[in-house]
Amino acid sequence: MTIEREAGQPPVWQNDTPEGQAPVMEGQDWSAWPVYDSATLGLRDYWYPVDWAERFTRKPRPVKILGEDIVLVREGEEIYALHDRCPHRGVPLSHGRRQFPDTVSCAYHGWTFELKTGNLCAVLTDGPDSPICGKLKVRTYPVAQRLGLVWVYIGAGPVPPVERDIPDELLDHDFAMGGRADVRNGNWRFAAENGFDEGHAKYLHNTALWRLFKVMPAWNKTRLQQEGPWLVRVQEELHWEADYPGLGVWTNKRWWKRMPLPDRPGKGKRVNRIIDSLNIPGFVSIRLPGLLRVAYPQFIHYEWYVPVDEDHVRYVQIMVRFEKGLTAAAFKAKYLAGIRWLFHGQFTGQDAWMVDVTDAPPERLYRPDLSITGWRRMVERAKPVVQILPSRAKAE
Amino acid sequence: MKLRTPAVVAALAVAAVGLPQVRRSLARLLILTTGTVVRDQRRIR
Lengths: 396, 45
Known about the structure:
Chain A is α+β, with helices and mostly antiparallel strands. Chain A is built from 8 helices and 21 strands. In chain A, a hairpin with a 4-residue loop joins β19 and β20. The mean pLDDT of chain A is 91. The relative contact order of chain B is 0.09. Chain B is α+β, with helices and mostly antiparallel strands. Chain B contains 2 helices and 1 strand, in the order ααβ. Chain B has helices spanning 4-18, 20-34, and one strand at residues 36-41. Chain A binds chain B through residues 52, 54-55, 146-148, 163, 166, 170-182, 318, 324, 328, 332, 335-336, 340, and chain B through 27-28, 30-32, 34-45.
């Protein structure tokens, strides 16, 4: 990217000039957000949803979160998490076997660790009096099960209750939910920025089948508002069409599409009582360590961006309806028949596509990107503990 | 008799889905094969 300057003229930004890439200029990199810039692997001292509890069995299963290799094992109703590395020769414990209850044995030499404590309690190839027993342990991680998901705490010091990192409305009410969890390409920050990005939905998603019968705005003006742990995008102006001189009219209006889409849940005609009581001032909100909430009049969509490694993010999305009985049953049927494929499939698949191909910095932001810079500032202000790359941690 | 057989099979299937154990098994199958969950959540606190 280069900048061409002429006397009295603002700079003109270009990509791929014959001279090749110019140095990154001020404002094009992430130096204004140094903590965020260094948080390639995410933020420590938070609980992260990993996957559906039903997906964990007695068979050890490897999972990577914030660059840490973890093995999860079920024993009855409990699920345990240990560092996925036998201290003997570095073989992943996820290759191991379950020889005794409440233990996992390394596949290589039968080093056997207690699931609860990580203590080395037996070495099967060295006899019952093996002198190394009791002298070693593997790191364990706090685990909780909520909302049908397994949550793992990555951090040090006192462990907060998992409820701290779950939205209040999901703790205080009955509801029906549908959801999907998978690992996608791209860094978690691109996923979070995409989720809270003001500009993209009305353009990228206007081809999504989920929006086939709903008009999307052409453009709008937004401000940000902090509400407790949430940073909320509030629409100040909504424009459904615009005339671009020399180009023509741009609009998403079509005869078969209904409008308007309420820009905040409280403005809808039929608003769920619980969603209404939340008094959310805007349609989309985000909070640390990377949880997005999109509130519609009748349901709320949540998505967690769980860092896996530098280039992958675990994407956990749920849709919640605060209903019981027949309405809840109808929602679950609708989720399986349509929402799973349309919203939690093709629609968020478009996001996955963009997150995968995003390549920044350098970047040249525009007016709607105040949502992205607002999120970065929020992370910066929180002074979080950044997960260090394992290679850097070793060097230090 | 021929007409009744599908109806009986359908009724048995509906009754089976009504059993909590069958529902749980179906839900588990759904999760394991598609990564998708549908469930009711009781208030946590």
